[in-house]
Amino acid sequence: MKSHIIGALRDLMEVSKVLVLVGVPGALLLFHVWQEYQITQTGYAIAEVTEEHRELLEEHKRLTVEASMHGRADLVAQTAREQFGLEPARPEQVIVIDLEAGDLQEHAALFDASTATR
What we know:
The chain has 118 residues and is mainly alpha-helical. It is 70% helix and 0% strand.
């Protein structure tokens, strides 16, 4: 009976050695893979936040320009009325010219063709 117990302990020691030799490197490998996955996910999150930050900066610039231009248009209109006596055009004073591609030469005297955009 004693020899069976000693034999079982030897077998247990051999199994333990194999588990340690395979289990520890396997656990380290799994930890490394998990760590790389976390790094990749964090990189994606950083890229997303960076893109959102860039878009917000662009919108801030656009809104800043729009806000500064809004105040200037009112100031220009006020100056035109007060200093030069100008008033907004009445609808009957507005002449709408519809230019088709063939009509460009016909109305050349009305505008500078180099500034026309389509």
